[in-house]
Amino acid sequence: MTATLERYGFDAARTAFAGRTAVAACIAFIAGWALGLEHPQWSAMAVWAAAQPTRGQLLEKGFFRIAGTISGTLAGIALVLAMQIHPALLVLGLALWVGLCTAIGNLQRGFVAYGTVLAGYTAAMVSLLDAAHPEHVLHLGADRFATVLTGVVTAMVVGTVFAPPAARGALRARLAALVADLLEAAATPASDARAPALLAEMSAIEDGLDPHGAGSFRSRRDVRAVRSVLIAAMALLLWRRAAETLPAAVAAELLRAAQLLRADAPEAAAEALTRAAAGRPDLAETLAPLAAALHGWLRPETPPTETALPVVLHRDWIGAREAGLRAFGGLLLFGVIWQLTGWSAGAYMLLGLSVMLSLFSTFENPSAQMRNVFYGQILGVIGALACRWLAWPLAGSELQMILSTLPFILIGPLFVGHRRTVAASFDYNMVLMLMLQPHWPLSGSFEASLAAGLAVLAGPVAAMVAYRFVYPTSLRRRQDTLIAMMRRDLGDLAADPQALSHRQVWRARLYHRLLRLVRLSGRSARASAEAMEIGLALVGLGQAAMRAHEIGASGAPPARAARAVLARLARYPADPGRSSAALARLGTRLSGADAMLFAEAAAQITAPAVTGRAG
Description:
The protein is an all-alpha fold. The chain has three domains: 3-165 and 315-469, no CATH class; 168-298, no CATH class; 475-611, no CATH class. It contains 28 helices and no strands. This is FUSC family protein.
């Protein structure tokens, strides 16, 4: 059976998961109607939105969906009440609320971000769909919450029966293999050629961590412990790129630690790292955090030691601000048009736009995603029109209307399972339910249904234009923004008089941003190589700035030159030439690894890619 499905382009596991979800959506739809809810189709939408492949993810997404629905419903009720003072307050308040939720959601990660942006467009759902009857807003808010609760509970019950727990063994083995490879590379002369592959594997592991942390506090501690290992391993990778050949005894301990990790003995590996650090004091600052991170990985419930590096995650403040302003401006513009023209289907258009400009702003490339969204919504509109005007007229009661809708829901798994339609499948399932509110006897006209469908389709079109021309969002621009933030970090680090006491925080932030930068550019070999070169150069400059702080605080003869370096770097990249000269002068007054560090920094800082200037 599996081979037959795959031959026709279907993924068997994904089709089976979607089939279970569709059945759960049907159950929630019927249950919502049986409970007397006014919008039982929202229960089916909640099932599709909450469904996840593992129990932990299902529980966490369900929790944040309920939390986001509560806060969004309260905001929607407040907006409708404000509308009775003046209609413009509905549009202005909705634009402000969705913009704020979008900005905050872009600073968060995982299902927390989902719950935040959900709160934004839930307010749109409550305030727009029944704006003509503000006296019913409390009933609508209660109905919205009850339908979501029905759908989430149904999804959890079905998911608990069928969804497996998260597979932790695979992550553990992958991380152990990575650190073992890194230790072997550090112990081997002329191993720099392995650095790009190791860095790419680090970024891939880090990018997939959030789903593993879903569902429990223990899972979150596990993920935090893994991130600590990755950040500490990054320090070793960067040290190895600039280090000379290790003594035989130290290299032997590193190789022994690698063997112990492959044998699933991380605690013994940490002890081997401690012995290696004792044989090479200048390596202790790098190996001690890695040994501490491995101990913490074994016992994530224990507090971190003083030598462990903190986990400081990258937050895209620039992208968050732009996403919030884009959502605010888009909703305000089309909301004013709706108010001035009185377009009857304008509420559907605003509702779709609130989802497109908030939820999809958290995607890496929302502009490209809009094309798939548009195709999926076309399928959803066609399905809804076919159900409403071909199937429902044959029904003799509201129950028969419900039952005649189920085949259209059960078509969804076919779209999810096939490789050509999977990208558009979610929007088919959601738009189908959004447009189908069962009410007996039937009323309305085909023209009104078609107008509502066209209004729904206008949402992704308007969002596509916004993503293309208002703070254009793409993988390349996210990458450029991240590089700009790393450049700013370098200047802030040089200017920070307390940098030595904040040393671990600065390092952890730069390391995580480097991992994120590599991941964003991973789809293109050329872009990945360029990102690695720029990111590693900026992190190297950060190491040089930190070493300059140490020399400047020591009072040694080169202290004045070190302070001059920091003064130049604080104005980087406005004057990279003078920064380079200051770094080179300091390098000539030092010897050994320090001389190499500042000489390399002096050469890198004037590169056009590093400064952000055209060559």
